[in-house]
């Protein structure tokens, strides 16, 4: 019996979203459900839990942001954190996240 408002996306679809670097909040917005519903479904299916890792240090983040052809989502995925964590850390260190600023970082090396 399906509970009221239960999120029922297939494992293949959820794996694809997670592989593309989407977080639970992104998936929840896409399907108009709560973030906890997506998290619960992923746990029940044995899919990976997003790690609430720590933001990278300034030197590592500076080097990653200098690669202007790599997206913020991909950088976050490599460090095992949400994209929002990368944005906040960049702001804290005073590093640019826009395209022009990231190109300036690359040229300054």
Please give a quick description of this structure.
It comes from Methylorubrum zatmanii. By secondary structure, this protein is mainly alpha-helical.
The number of distinct structural domains comes to 2
* Cα radius of gyration in angstroms: 17 Å
SS element count, helices: 7
Beta fraction: under 5%
Structural features, described:
This protein is mostly helical and 109 residues long. The protein has 2 domains: 11-45, no CATH class; 58-108, no CATH class. It contains 7 helices and no strands. The protein is elongated, with a radius of gyration of 17 Å. This is Transposase.
What does the secondary structure layout of this molecule look like, with pairings?
Layout: H1 11-19, H2 24-31, H3 35-45, H4 58-66, H5 72-79, H6 83-93, H7 99-108
Helix pairs in contact: 2-3, 4-7, 5-6
Task: Give the key terms.
109 residues; mainly alpha; 2 domains; 7 helices; 61% helix; Transposase
